[in-house]
Fold this protein.
Amino acid sequence: MDALRLEELNARNVVEANNLTLKPGQEQFVAPVSNSIAEAYVNQNTAWPRVVYAGENLVGFVMATFDQDSTREEFKALILRMNVDADVQGRGVGRFAVEEIAAEGRRRGAEYLYSMWEGGEDGPDAFFRRIGFEVIGENEFGEVVGRLRLQD
Ligand SMILES: CC(C)(COP(=O)(O)OP(=O)(O)OC[C@H]1O[C@@H](n2cnc3c(N)ncnc32)[C@H](O)[C@@H]1OP(=O)(O)O)[C@@H](O)C(=O)NCCC(=O)NCCS
């Protein structure tokens, strides 16, 4: 795969980001990209939406939120959405995206990067555990809450 890089979500890439595909059965684990884009628009101070390119191809969309003033610890640095195109899943795009979000969290002084996901066979549970997330409990919606340490 060509070299991976992140780009801010912008007018040029937004339509392509919205056309990313998922594998059958994965829709239940992530909200449509269009919802995330709308959320990012109304939460411009905290939302951090990015697209992932492999060379010239848009292969993923991620959105994090960073709010150091939040009273909820998880919202200081939290992955909200990840969507790697069905055709390139399993080739390191998700890991790259999380590393970039972690780097941004570190720059902002966050101690942990959090994520919340639905458990289940076809979901991202194995992915988050594999890349180093420690499961710390469940949230009010029954989702798994995990975190990755950012500071030594
Ligand atoms: C979850 C998702 C973002 C992972 O992205 P990806 O690019 O496929 O993952 P990567 O290739 O970077 O995988 C990183 C590691 O996790 C492992 N992994 C990924 N998915 C896995 C799975 N379903 N089962 C077991 N291991 C898995 C990979 O083998 C890899 O391990 P390695 O580096 O030791 O070889 C992607 O599959 C996706 O978009 N899924 C649908 C939407 C979704 O569930 N999003 C999450 C909502 S928050």
Remarks:
- Residues 22, 26, 29-30, 81-84, 89-95, 117, 123-124, 126-127, 130-131 surround coenzyme A (CB under 6 Å).
